[in-house]
């Protein structure tokens, strides 16, 4: 009788790096939680989410927003972190002081790098952060950030300073670093000329330049950049490497941004896969 052929032992499966986004839902799929999870998929990590708000949103703007209670945010966070664990965290829309303080408290007790995108307004100019929450962002959230990624509008909200040139970006970076993050990326894409971002920890400066793509479909750029940085940190890269790789990814996503609806379409989170 023939001897049975042994079945090869299955190769052990290793879970990918885990990244958590704490942000709002964007029903059009171009920004918020949806953009974060698409970015995480593109970087080959396992994306997880804590929902802070639900927005009714499309290519034309935000039609409504409904905030979740702090206890719902806390329960989601504990459910994920206590069981699955996390290698990096990204924060986005935290619309109230109560949510900012809840999330800041949770992050202070978690041993993982944190990327804070201090979302203030949507791409269409709709407010996404209550004015009374700004102080909580400054005093509670930014101090727990490994990297903060404000755009120029958010810099103005946080510091009261209007940036018009690269010298102003340096001053803005110093002001934001004064709130406590270890690194800051001042996003200068709204300045004239080629887009430039400044990454600094107060001692080292990295000026990140890229060609300007004249494509109006740029919804979700801020969420995407912050998520991509978090992915890099979860994969073990240092901050400058994570930010450079994120900038390259976002630049490609902007170039491939596509029209949806009657307004501003999203960046293309799957541009690398489609290009291949």
Structural class: alpha/beta
Report the portion of residues in β strands.
Answer: 15-25%
Q: Roughly what is the average pLDDT, rounded to an integer?
A: 93
Overall shape: it is globular
Tell me the major beta sheet. 9 strands, mixed
Q: Stretches where pLDDT falls below 50 for ≥5 residues?
A: none
The string of secondary-structure elements, in order, is EHEEHEHEHEHHEEEHHH
Number of continuous helical runs: 9
User: Which percent range fits the helix content?
Assistant: 25-40%
Radius of gyration, in Å, reads 19 Å
List the strand order in the largest sheet: 3-2-1-4-5-6-7-8-9
How many β strands by DSSP? 9
| Distance separating the two termini | 51 Å
Q: Care to describe what's here?
A:
With 276 residues, this protein is an alpha/beta fold. Helices cover 37% and strands 19% of the residues. The chain has helices at 32-42, 70-83, 97-108, 134-141, 152-159, 166-177, 221-234, 239-255, 271-275, and strands at 18-26, 46-58, 61-67, 88-91, 114-116, 147-148, 183-187, 196-200, 205-209. The protein has a 9-stranded mixed sheet with strand order 3-2-1-4-5-6-7-8-9, sandwiched between helices. β2 and β3 form a beta hairpin. The N and C termini lie far apart (51 Å). The mean pLDDT is 93.
């Amino acid at each position: 009788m023939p001897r049975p052929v042994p079945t090869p032992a299955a190769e052990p499966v290793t879970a990918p790096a885990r990244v958590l986004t704490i942000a709002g839902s964007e029903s059009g799929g171009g920004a918020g939680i949806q953009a974060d999870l698409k970015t995480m998929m593109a970087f080959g990590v396992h994306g997880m989410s804590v929902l802070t708000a639900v927005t009714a949103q499309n290519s034309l703007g935000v039609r409504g927003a409904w905030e979740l209670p702090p206890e719902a945010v806390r329960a989601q966070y504990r459910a994920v972190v206590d069981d699955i664990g996390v290698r990096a965290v990204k924060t986005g829309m935290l619309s109230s002081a109560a949510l900012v303080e809840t999330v800041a408290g949770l992050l202070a007790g978690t041993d993982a790098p944190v990327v804070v995108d201090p979302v203030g307004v949507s791409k269409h100019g709709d407010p996404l952060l209550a004015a009374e929450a700004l102080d909580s962002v400054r005093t509670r959230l930014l101090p727990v950030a490994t990297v903060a990624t404000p755009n120029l509008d958010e810099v103005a909200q946080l510091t009261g300073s209007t940036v018009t040139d690269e010298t102003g970006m340096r001053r803005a970076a110093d002001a934001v670093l004064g709130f406590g993050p270890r690194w800051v990326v001042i996003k200068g894409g709204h300045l004239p000329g080629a887009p430039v971002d400044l990454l600094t920890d107060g001692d080292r400066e990295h000026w990140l330049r890229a060609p300007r793509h004249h494509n109006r479909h740029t919804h979700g750029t801020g969420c995407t950049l912050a998520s991509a940085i978090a992915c890099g940190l979860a994969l073990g890269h240092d901050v400058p490497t994570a930010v450079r790789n994120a900038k390259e990814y976002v630049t490609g996503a902007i170039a491939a941004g596509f029209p949806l609806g009657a307004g501003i379409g999203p960046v293309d989170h799957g541009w690398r896969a489609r290009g291949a």
